[in-house]
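Notebook, p. 212. Picked up where the previous page left off. The plan for this session was modest: take the two constructs that came back from the sequencing core last week, fold each one, and keep the raw output in the notebook itself so nobody has to go hunting through shared drives later. Recording the first one now, exactly as returned: residue sequence, then the structure token string.
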Amino acid sequence: MDNAAIEDMFETLGPVTIRRMFGGKGVYLQGVILAVEVDGEILLKGDAETAPEFEEAGSRQWSYDGKGKPVKMPYWSIPESAFDDPDEMGRWVRMAYAAALRAKK
């Protein structure tokens, strides 16, 4: 996904910074990572507070194979309905930023 498309997704938060990392990209707001791009897909930061909402919306948690067993990461796919509704996308990215701030503490 190109940087302009990523910036559009997060516009409700203000200007984000995008940095290359591990073959993908990290999306930051005020120095706090709130999303990653992996294989062309944006994944939002989640935590114990937001995981149930992501699950209910049909999102999937990012995991990778680590030494024979899956390792779950604190990032979730964006619910499909958010791609057609800027207000809903704004709600999800604000949730991701709130989770990122909680994780930073």
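Okay, moving on. Second construct, recorded in the same format:
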Amino acid sequence: MKSESEKLIKKHHELIHTDNLKVISHVQREEDDWFINTLMFENIDVPFKYKRKQLYKSLINNRVNVTYYVSKEEVAGFEIEIMNIVRIKVS
């Protein structure tokens, strides 16, 4: 039986899946009716983002499996690369 992440990747070829990433930073901020979560992982210099309807427990020092896609966002006039998380699960 295929995992949920394998099914997503098969259906959407632009998705990437990575297992066992260690969270070193987790910031949550409210934007409209959503909480925007930004994660930084050990040895990775790109922010990962996802939205939730409610606050979530801190993921700092946890290991997670993520399915995501590459995107770009403009911050202070500069275009930066970010990763948009589609699915996240604590390992």
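Notes on construct two before I forget. The radius of gyration is 13 Å.
Flagging for discussion at group meeting.
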